[in-house]
Amino acid sequence: MMLLFFVLLFPAASLIPLPAGTPVKMLLNEPLNTGLVSEGQIVMCKSYGGVMVQGTTVITHGAPGHARVVEVRTARKKKITSISVEAIDITACDGQVVALNGTLAEIVVNEEANGIGHLLAANVAGSMDISLSKGGN
């Protein structure tokens, strides 16, 4: 009887494998201000659409993540800056940080556009198990 109570109160976690190469979409969630951004700077992102594996959500829509500024190029005459950014990680639903191989995205930043909402594409860098409690998701 006590074992049944314990199992009901603390259900066992199940592990869902998140394979390397799984695609992840992210949105830039932080402005890239032309005079303030620098190469190597880390900027905030969030997942777009989430990621499902075996019919289970392993990365939720809006999960926090990060991207790195790779290159900053400025055309002085037009006051336009081109900033290359790549996604580097995202947080899975169990709190683990998932390393990503990001595709380089070039973002044009000027007085009208600051990069927020720009779509970034990436893939999971290495396979890992995501822990989910039974009955969840």
Classify the beta-strand content into a percent band.
Answer: over 45%
Q: Based on DSSP secondary structure assignment, what is the total number of beta strands? A: 11
Look up the CATH topology. Answer: Lipocalin
CATH first level: Mainly Beta
Shape label: elongated
Structure description:
Strand 7 (80-91) and strand 8 (97-102) form a beta hairpin. This protein has one helix and eleven strands; from the N terminus they run H-E-E-E-E-E-E-E-E-E-E-E. The strands form three sheets. Strands 2-3-6-7-8-10 form a six-stranded antiparallel beta barrel. It has a two-stranded antiparallel sheet with strand order 1-11. A two-stranded antiparallel ribbon has the order 4-5. It has 137 residues and is mainly beta.
